Fold aspartyl aminopeptidase.
Amino acid sequence: MLICSTKAMKRLNGEKGFESAIQKSFLISSDMAHALHPNYSEKHESLHGPLIHKGLVVKYNCNQRYATSMATSFHLTELARKLNIPLQKFVVRNDSPCGSTIGPILATACGIRAVDVGIPQLSMHSIREVCGVKDVVSATNLFTAFYENFVKLDATFKVD
């Protein structure tokens, strides 16, 4: 799949345009996030327990199970701040295993900047998963704003 994605991008942009396309591209790896469960609050860091109806979650992991870095989270964080859209940050506990997403795989294989996000939910992978409607709405609003404003916002982002 990853080779096909790279091949497809090269075919769409041409060999010479591929590098430019990668530099101008950005991947939002959108999945779900484990919300703070009242019966298992010890599973989260005290300041990083995503709550339902409090906005989309930007996910960080020091073991690179998520593609998010401080630089790649800038775009979403800045847009959310400007538009007053709620956003939460989540850092996985060091002693707690976690799954991964397609974000780090694609970011590594293609060299595209990426951020991992998710709507907080309870009972992930069970038959009764629960998430908040407000979080779906705020995520949709943020994604829409991202695609409408990315080029302009990205032009202001300077890396020294």
User: Anything to note?
Assistant: The helical segments are 2-24, 70-83, 102-110, 133-156.
